[in-house]
Specification:
Blueprint lengths: L26 H52 L1
Length: 79
């Protein structure tokens, strides 16, 4: 560890160059990043959104049916 890296302590163990010299990010990391982002977007927009919309639709229908039942009960008891 060089004297310049001493401020990083244990994190800089085994580093032979100055950590302030950041290099280019290797292409494999960009490939991993964009692939992961693509998979996450597909999972969210293609898989999870339709499930969420289906659950919201089912809840909406259940609420409407419950309101209709309550109105019918109130109409029959008020006669």
């Amino acid at each position: 560890m060089t004297d310049r890296n001493a401020k990083y302590g244990v994190l800089a163990r085994g580093v032979r160059r100055d950590l302030s010299e950041k290099g280019w990010v290797p292409a494999r990391y960009w490939i991993i990043w964009w692939t992961s982002l693509g998979v996450a977007m597909v999972a969210f927009y293609v898989v999870l959104t339709p499930i969420w919309l289906g659950l919201r639709g089912a809840a909406w229908i259940a609420e409407l049916r419950s309101r209709l039942r309550a109105e019918r009960r109130n109409a029959s008891t008020s006669d």
